[in-house]
Amino acid sequence: MLSHTNEETCLSGSIFEVRLLISEIQEARKISSVFRQAQIIPHIYEEFSEFYRDSVQAEGPSLCIIDVKKMSQGMIKLKGLPGVKNESLHLVFYYSDDSLPLLYSTYEMFNFGLIRKSEDYGGQIKSVLRRYNLYRYQDHQIKILNDEMLDTKSVNQKTFALLEEQKEKNYYQDRLFQICEEFEREKSNISFFEALEDVFMKVEEFVGFSYMELSTNGLKLLSPPSGNKKFHKLPALWLGQELHEGIEFFAQNMANQVALEVLGADVMCLTIKGRLTNPEALIFVKVDNEDFLNQFRWNNFEDYLSNVFAYFYAQKVQAPNQISNYLDGFLFLEKLDENRFYQNKSEKLYLVDVNLTDLSNLISKKSELRFYWKDFYLDFIRSLRIKYSSDFYYTTTNAKHLSFLVDREKSEIFLRSVKEFAKRFPYWKYFEDREFIFTKDVEVVVRSLPVSSLAYLSYINNAENVYSNMPLNNSSPVISTEVVQ
Known about the structure:
Elements: H1 6-9, E1 18-21, H2 25-36, E2 43-45, H3 48-57, E3 63-67, E4 72-73, E5 76-77, H4 82-85, E6 91-95, E7 111-116, H5 122-165, H6 171-185, H7 192-202, E8 206-214, E9 220-222, E10 237-238, H8 249-263, E11 267-272, E12 281-287, H9 290-295, H10 298-317, H11 322-325, H12 329-341, E13 349-355, H13 357-365, H14 373-387, E14 393-398, E15 401-407, H15 411-424, E16 445-449, H16 453-461
Helix pairs in contact: 5-10
């Protein structure tokens, strides 16, 4: 029996609706009776044309269960519906044993699963609703994040408006505006710290800077590794207690003392606030003269940097669209061979593999150090999406490989983006003890591969030996990241 609960039938006050388009009216009534037990009355259609007309005219039902035998009528096809094209129409496909071959035509349409003809539909429908409600919940959370990003953008716009009004009053306010503009141009970076590095390198008045943030367990203040000439790495500070709500005042004082010892005089400390009660990062800036230190509008700059920090956080926490872009191993291999054996297909793909074998081996050897796999995986994919704005498919064959498929016309741009991204990605950040110094360089190999399941599996299974002897028409040089420390 399908129980009737608010969680199963609605989200954020929206009414749950179901529409059925099934060739066998008796089976449609069975499915309808399952929903009726939860006081949901589905609308049953007998003809595809009627369903098509109502779907075009209406805003769209919450859920549509479509018989694979009923996906077209004459020249009218289900995939031609605007709601199917933009994925706003939420589909579930019904099939029986004799219509099983027709499932192939559903693969390219966004859907929430399948319902097979059976005597009892309760379990299948409940499983579909779980997926559907999870999708609705995640969609709702993304909307909340988008609202937060709009609020952040509004604050930034107000800040810029204020700066423009006062721009002519003095040099220092005008200088602040110019630095903020540099940050706006660097928002395509994969992290707040990278944007900070790039901008501070360009600011002549900033002759040196340091950056500290809490370790993952909240026990230490740490300074990230950096190749920036102006950056000064500060020693790690043990705090004696776990800090879960940001950097408390006593820890800020400890960091200030160390920064003064390392950077010397004329240093300003900026506390960067985010979603926690206390600051989440500390930036120490050494300037070239005392006048700049005293007259520059540090308070406005600090507020602006906090907004930029919030922007990067909001970008980071948005989940990848697993439904439309992630492919499990078998589907990934299938797409490779579709591209190989059907040369006339409109979809021409390009395969790029990121080989993390060296990093994985290092993690295995250092079993006493915890590595945050989930955070690493999610941040890697999210950050690459930010760096490379176009779409791509991806899969995780194992912990040593992340593989990507992209439109062949964009292959050069994508390969260049992944190389640059893999070289600068902060792998150190996902070790619990970030002060751990690697004893060797960590190589992250980025290369293109033939679009073939055979070549791909050969490379994955024996990347160093088998693949080195295979002819590559679109190979690219191996790159190595800098030492992670």
